[in-house]
Each structure stands twice: as C-alpha cells, then as structure tokens.
From TrEMBL:
SMART domains: AAA (SM00382)
InterPro entries reported in the protein's UniProt record: AAA+_ATPase (IPR003593), ABC_transporter-like_ATP-bd (IPR003439), ABC_transpr_CbiO/EcfA_su (IPR015856), ECF_ABC_transporter_ATP-bd (IPR050095), P-loop_NTPase (IPR027417)
Gene3D superfamilies listed in its UniProt record: P-loop containing nucleotide triphosphate hydrolases
Upper lineage: Bacteria, Pseudomonadati, Pseudomonadota, Alphaproteobacteria, Rhodobacterales
Domain ABC transporter intervals: 4-238
Family statement: Belongs to the ABC transporter superfamily.
Protein name: ABC transporter domain-containing protein
MF terms (GO), sorted A to Z: ATP binding; ATP hydrolysis activity; ATPase-coupled transmembrane transporter activity
Protein's UniProt keywords contain Acyltransferase: no
Gene Ontology cellular component terms for the protein in this record: ATP-binding cassette (ABC) transporter complex
Keyword Transferase found: no
Keywords, in A-Z order: ATP-binding, Nucleotide-binding, Transport
PROSITE patterns noted in UniProt: ABC_TRANSPORTER_2 (PS50893)
Length: 272
C-alpha cells in the first residue's frame, strides 16, 4: 500500500546547531491511527509541524502524497494533511461556526452540492448544528475544539493531525471524538494523535511512535508497546490501567474494558 507520508533521516532544530529531532524515519499508511508519545519537550508538536509543512527539515526528507514536500507549498500540503492544533483559537479565523467549517471545502475544486454535503456531514458528526451562527470564540473550549475538528474533517484530507485534541473533554465529548477517529479510519484516512493520555491512546490508536532525546525509539503496534515495560519507560509514559489489570490477571493485553470482560468471560468458561 502506498504511504500517505514518509519521513526519511529527518533532522530538525529551531537552532540547527541543537537538533530537537534526529534521524527520524517512518511512513504512515491509509487507515492507520498513529499515536506520537513522549515526555514534555520530546519534540511531538515539532514533529507534527514537520508533517504539515509548517516546519521544514534541516536534513532528510518528507514525502507527502508521493511528492517531495520540500517542493510543495504549505497550502498544497494542507490539501493532504489537516491539523487540529493544541489551541484551536490559533486556527479559527471566521466570524461564525458555519463560515469557519465552510472555508476549507470552498478552497477545493468541488461542486457547491459536494461542498454543502461535506459541511452538513461535518456539522452532524461534531454536534455543532445548534451553534452554526455563533462566533466560534464565544463557544466553550471543548466546542471550539470540535469546530476545528469539523473544519478539518469537512476537507477530507488523507491524513489528520490531532495535537492533544482529547485534552479537557468530558466523557461524552471524548467518546464523540473517539467515534470520529474510528469513522475517519474506516473511510481509509489516517490520523496522527499527539497525546499524553495513554487511556485514549490504548482505546483509539493502532500504532505508537515514541520519542526520547530527539530520536524515534519506539515504532510498535499499540498492544505490543503497552506490554513492553522497557518501551513505556523509554518514552516516560505509564501503562494504561486496563493493561496493568489484564497483565495482573494473566490475561492477554486488553486495551479497552470490553476486551478485558471478553477475556475474563472466556476464562470463566474454561476457554482461556
Ligand atoms: N518555536 C520554538 N522555538 C524554539 N524552541 C522551541 C519552539 N517550539 C518548541 N521548542 C523547543 O523544542 C523542544 C520540543 O518541543 P515540542 O513542543 O515539540 O515538544 P512536545 O513533545 O510537543 O512537548 P509537550 O508535550 O510539552 O507539548 C522543546 O525543547 C521546546 O522548548
């Protein structure tokens, strides 16, 4: 399968003499949900900015949709890579929720019917139907986040970057965001989550990229990563409670409560 995006031997430093990221190499394929983890300052947000072209590597290459990203403008990369930034107020610039969500599809070569269909779909899936005429910055922080999410999903990019998009959301909205991630994955789009919340990673990611000391020290399927104490230690994250519990019960690694319940039921029936 052709990757959506490939990094090869990427090095970057805000001061080129002091690289924040070194020798970074990985590819992202359609339908993957990839979590980027690591301690504060490990370089996660910097890596996202290399993926969406806001930063350019000092060495190495980024290929986006099969092309050398060095030859693409940020706007050309944005047609393939959409970003929900940590602070949505930094990306929101329209006076109503409706016009904010409509902005992206209007930049694409789409019929007005297709634009409207994408806007309606994004509004319905993010639950913003009641606030379309409001100024996005008059909404609470969680709703503002969903305005940013709706603006990105309405563009249907190949790859979406969510920088701590789950942070501060209540259980209902976390579940709404998780559902959107699953729907986008099912539609063959890829998602990168920069995330400090390991329960969210366990529930929604397929694969983990772990950064430490500016290097990619983990690239593993999520269950394998959380089962490996040395790997979680290397990137300074804790195992989610559900993984600790399944290991304590000597069951296969569960990433969500229903998996654990299933494994327990199987054991009680004498099946495991
Ligand atoms: N605009 C900038 N100019 C100079 N240095 C920066 C800039 N942005 C980040 N840094 C530095 O680069 C390093 C990596 O920062 P980055 O924000 O990418 O880490 P992070 O893993 O996303 O951290 P956090 O988990 O706290 O968000 C840190 O040492 C940070 O201080």
């Amino acid at each position: 399968m052709t990757p959506i995006l490939t990094l090869d031997a990427v090095r970057f430093g805000y001061d080129p003499e002091k690289p924040v990221l070194r020798d970074i190499a990985f590819s992202i394929h359609p339908g993957e949900v990839v979590a980027v983890v690591g301690r504060n300052g490990a370089g996660k947000s910097t890596m996202l900015r290399l993926l969406n072209g806001l930063l350019r590597p000092d060495a190495g290459s980024v290929r986006t949709a099969g092309k050398d990203a060095a030859k693409l403008k940020v706007s050309e990369i944005a047609a393939h890579v959409g970003t929900v930034f940590q602070a949505p107020e930094q990306q929101i610039f329209n006076a109503t929720v409706q016009t904010e969500i409509a902005f992206g599809p209007a930049q694409q070569c789409l019929s007005s019917e297709e634009q409207q269909a994408r806007i309606d779909d994004a509004v319905a899936r993010t639950g913003l139907g009641e606030v379309l005429e409001m100024h996005p910055l008059d909404l609470d922080a969680a709703m503002r986040r969903f305005v940013a999410v709706a603006s990105v999903i309405a563009c249907r990019p190949d790859l979406m970057l969510f920088d701590e998009a789950q942070r501060g959301l209540d259980a209902t909205r976390r579940s709404l965001l998780g559902g959107i991630i699953a729907e986008e994955k099912a539609a063959g789009r890829a998602i990168v989550l920069v995330c400090h919340d390991m329960d969210f990673v366990a529930a929604h990611a397929d694969r983990v990229l772990g950064l430490a000391e500016g290097r990619l020290v983990v690239d593993a399927p999520v269950a394998e990563f959380f089962s490996d104490a040395a790997a979680t230690r290397a990137v300074s994250v804790e195992q989610p409670g559900i993984v600790t519990l399944s290991q304590a019960l000597d069951l296969p690694v569960a990433l969500q409560a229903p998996d654990l319940v299933l494994a327990l039921r199987k054991r009680l029936k004498g099946g495991a």
